[in-house]
Amino acid sequence: QVQLVESGGGLVQAGGSLRLSCAASGSIRSINAMGWYRQAPGNQRELVARTTSGGSTNYADSVKGRFTISIDNAKNMVFLQMNSLKPEDTAVYYCNADLWTNRGWINDYWGQGTQVTVSS
Predict the structure, then answer these.
(1) Quick one: DSSP state of residue 53?
(2) Is the pLDDT reported for residue 83 higher than 90?
(3) Which of 32, 97, 99, 108 has the fewest Cβ atoms nearer than 10 Å?
(4) Would you give the DSSP letter of residue 43?
């Protein structure tokens, strides 16, 4: 089995910062890409940022210049540094991974999510 466990969410004032972490564990052979998505109430889940194991990244336009994604391949972890947070960043943030396991390829594996709330 594989697990993705997110941490680092919480309540922060507008303009503040948070750092999300996601640890992948279990029968992992290699990770192709990891990313962060978010879902606000009444909205569809949307991409926030994604990185390959080689460090190629892409970001949603709404977070460019404010959020930074990074990956630690040795620890099977991905991070999201969120600066200059806005109330509209409030959402449940989900970790996502494409990875090879002992049982084969898994595409779009999800964590349970962590709540980020930005107060105005």
Answers:
(1) T
(2) yes
(3) 108
(4) S
Strand (E) positions, the chain? 2-7, 10-13, 18-26, 28-39, 46-52, 57-59, 67-72, 77-82, 91-101, 104-110, 114-119
DSSP-derived letter for residue 61 is: G
What pLDDT was estimated at residue 1?
85
Which residues make Cβ contacts (< 8 Å) with residue 116, sequence separation at least 6? Answer: 9, 10, 12, 18, 20, 38, 82, 85, 89, 90, 91, 92, 93
Question: The tokens 């970790």 sit on which residue?
Answer: 95
Give the chain's end-to-end CA distance (angstroms, integer): 40
Q: What is the pLDDT of residues 22-77, one digit of tens each?
A: 999 999 999 999 999 999 999 999 999 999 999 999 999 999 999 999 999 999 99
Nearest Cα residue to 19 out of 78, 60, 74: 78
